[in-house]
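#dry-run=false #mode=assembly
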Amino acid sequence: MKKIKLNPKAVLGQIHVYTGAGKGKTTAGLGLAIRAAGSGKKVAIVYFDKGGLLYGERNILPKLKPHIRFWVTGLIRFVPGKPFRFGVTTADKKEALRGLGIVSSLFKKKYDLVICDELATAAGLKMIPVAKVLRLMKTKPNSVELVLTGRNCPKKILAAADLVTEMKLIKHYFYKGIPARQGIEF
Ligand code: ATP
Ligand code: MG
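#status=ok
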């Protein structure tokens, strides 16, 4: 096995991707946000593609200000009891670009951890060009730890990341008829 030389001066600045078809990507990002905030880090979360305030965390995050701040972009995908809205429209693309603009502006504001939730999904669905996401990753200040989440992450983004974790779908209760539940799935 290759011997790894650890860098004792390592600071923030790594790029994580949480992808895959299993559950746990967005909540892993949120868990990291809480850990970082609890350690005195300044955290920003930018939500892509899933708009609205339906998701439980978006109702508690305002109470974590100024430790964690968040921005919601994207149109509504899901209303309980109704089918998920699939497909990509011009309006979805416009919202994704707006989200990317927010992330760029946050790079100038001394955040320690920036989480781009569902940005990998947006790139995988061609809602946003992969080249723009790669540029964002390149222009990230060295001191910012960046997290991208979402299924079907394009290979070039995976290649440019420092950490890639795949949530592998082994079982999901959805397939035995359990619908998305408030507080667990959203
Ligand atoms: P979470 O937000 O719970 O961490 P996630 O970010 O990994 O999940 P997404 O791809 O954003 O998952 O999907 C949102 C929700 O859809 C998840 O809470 C999840 O339980 C549900 N889901 C994930 N995979 C499947 C699947 N294969 N079939 C049906 N529903 C799924
Ligand atoms: Mg998610």
